[in-house]
Design brief:
This protein is α/β, with parallel strands linked by helices. It has helices spanning 2-11, 27-44, 59-70, 84-94, 107-115, 133-137; strands spanning 15-18, 24-26, 50-54, 74-78, 98-101, 121-123, 129-130. It has a single domain, classed as Rossmann fold (3-Layer(aba) Sandwich), CATH 3.40.50.980.
Length: 182
Amino acid sequence: MEILRGQLPSTGDTTALIDLRGGTTTYRWLHDRAALLAAELQRHASGPGAVGVLCERNALHVAGMLATWRAGLIYCPLDPSLPPQRLLWMLRDAQPVAVLVGPPSGSAADAVARECAGIPTLLLESGVLRSRAAECLNADVGGGGGGGGSGGGGGAEVPQAAGDVPEDGCYLLYSSGSTGEP
């Protein structure tokens, strides 16, 4: 986060990311979105643990990853293209303290919504907390998951997570290896 924050004065309005569709995202937008989401995670997540990020690979996903780390939590990517059964297994195993979601993603989103009832779930596009994951995943979020532009935000600042030490986890990745099982 320090590297990203350090880019703001000199390159805040320049391109930080280019997505597969050719859309661009600035350092300022990425910083501001991560700060907003991190503040919401700190408000709503119940203690240390993993945060599931269910979103296609785009600027919103990167913002969710950075926000999770900024809030002192463990990033757990949830690929919406995975079979719903695999996502459910991952969620049950990870027991996330919160889930960040991008635009609705079909059957995977429906499965995650049922499994995450009661877990704080936030929209990556707005940082809005939904009381139930089903509401969040089926919400009409418009746009399309890129982020872009300069964000125009005021540069929200989030206190660093208390107790961050090198031994803390930062990433929870599931791999099937050669068995086909997570």
